[in-house]
Design a protein that fits this description.
alpha/beta; Udp-n-acetylmuramoylalanyl-d-glutamate--2,6- Diaminopimelate Ligase, Chain: A, domain 1; Protein-Tyrosine Phosphatase, Chain A; 3 domains; six-stranded mixed β-sheet
């Protein structure tokens, strides 16, 4: 079956599932396979649950005429998503970067949604499966689309661009993330820069942070650029951090506006400025921009501030790399809080840089006074020194439960694989609010 014919079926059954546990009657089921499972084996279950059609790539699992046999289910899903994307002439904004892309995506979506019917990546569905699923959820009548693109190796972003066909691009930054897959910092820039390459080739537009000089080099030859930053650009702003939460002042031609946020950390300045630049470019009023950003509440363990008993906790345990770790720790050290503790988990995908980067991180920790430090993960074993150390977050949580802090400010940060949010289970449930 060709994509045009499959697209006709999709229009009749526009809900796509790759997991039978989420499948509802009338959905299309794509039997994706992974390294440890064969999605075709769920065909019968999908039909029993009411799937309108099952797209499979193994003829042995073809049960009836509601099973559509293709050469490769994943490639078919991606081709269908690209075909659907081609039906739209609206702005498609792609966002990638080492740090801050999900927060930036959420802020940009909040701002654009204040005036336009906006579709955006849900959660972090930003990979080879999530991006096509994101595109296939975009409905007719949508006026703006935002697609987050994650990557851990070169050529990945280039592939996503061929599916999503972005008209606008944002690179939040190029830091020390996924070093193992990208092959060093230069590899990170090359990989993330594949978004700029596509925008350059298609004469699209980028929103560029002038505070990161390397982005100017990477953006050479792109004719349409909206710039922003602390010192120069189409839009200029200043980060204020007089309390726990960030405020941003933006200088406009006629006046100056101040934007309050629920974001912790000066490093979120760039994320806010990106959303401001996008909103102003698309003609959204400053009142709507201020309201949208002020109302945004971070969640999902991303710079999430919470009160637990008598303690104030910043939970930033969704991801971590040397760049984001340094920014988070340095910012936490400057906050007007008492009795500060660090609960830090190991950073993943560091490759040959793992030993060096964790040693550097411990040296950074030593530059400040802390009320207590807990290190979690095999990565820190050699450098733990006098700090409390555990191999797993579960072991650390057991320790915390026996030594519950009182009246402390605590930064919890680590890579997703470190599962640092587990430490919250040490607190009695009634303390969480």
């Amino acid at each position: 079956m060709n994509i045009a014919r499959l697209y006709e079926l999709y229009l009749q059954h526009p809900a796509v599932q790759t997991d039978t546990r989420k499948l509802k009657p009338g959905d299309l089921f794509f039997a994706l396979s992974g390294s440890n499972f064969n999605g075709n084996t769920f065909t019968g279950q999908a039909l029993e649950k009411g799937a309108a059609f099952c797209i499979i790539d193994d003829a042995n699992y073809r049960i009836n005429d509601r099973c559509i046999l293709v050469d490769n289910v994943l490639e078919t899903l991606q081709s269908l998503a690209r075909h659907h994307r081609q039906q739209f002439t609206i702005p498609f904004i792609a966002i990638t970067g080492s740090n801050g892309k999900t927060t930036t995506k959420e802020l940009v979506a909040a701002v654009l949604s204040s005036q336009f019917k906006t579709a955006a990546t849900e959660g972090n569905l930003n990979n080879h499966i999530g991006i096509p699923l994101t595109l296939l959820k975009i409905k007719q009548g949508t006026e703006m689309a935002i697609v987050e693109m994650g990557a851990n190796h070169q050529k990945e972003i280039a592939g996503y661009c061929r599916i999503a066909l972005p008209t606008h691009g944002i690179i939040t930054n190029c830091g020390k993330a996924h070093i193992e897959g990208f092959g060093g910092e230069e590899g990170v820039r090359k990989g993330k820069g594949e978004l700029y390459d596509f925008i350059r080739e298609t004469n699209g537009m980028i929103f560029r942070n002038t505070d990161l000089s390397y982005l100017e080099t990477m953006a050479a030859g792109i004719n349409h650029q909206i710039t922003f930053g602390a010192n120069s650009g189409t839009y200029k702003g200043t980060a204020l951090n007089q309390g726990i939460f960030l405020e941003v002042q933006v200088q406009l031609a006629a006046n100056q506006i101040t934007i309050p946020t629920h974001l912790v950390g000066l490093y979120n300045f760039n994320n806010v400025m990106t959303a401001v630049a996008v909103g102003l470019h698309f003609g959204i009023s400053t009142d709507k921009i201020i309201s949208a950003i002020a109302a945004y509440q971070p969640d999902n363990s991303r710079s999430q501030w919470m009160k637990v008993g008598s303690n104030q906790i910043i939970l930033d345990a969704y991801n971590a790399n040397p760049t984001s770790m340094q920014a988070a720790i340095q910012n936490f050290a400057t906050l007007p809080l008492n009795n500060k503790q660090l609960w830090i988990g190991g950073m993943k995908e560091m490759g040959t840089a793992e030993r060096y980067e964790h040693e550097q991180l411990v040296q950074l920790i030593h530059q400040y006074h802390w009320d207590g430090v807990i290190l979690v993960g095999q990565e820190f074993k050699e450098f733990k020194g006098d700090h409390v150390w555990f191999e797993t977050a579960a072991e650390a949580a057991t320790f915390v439960a026996k030594h519950l802090p009182q009246n402390n400010a605590i930064l919890i940060k680590g890579s997703r694989g470190s599962k640092m949010e587990t430490l919250l289970t040490a607190f009695p449930a009634e303390q969480n609010n």
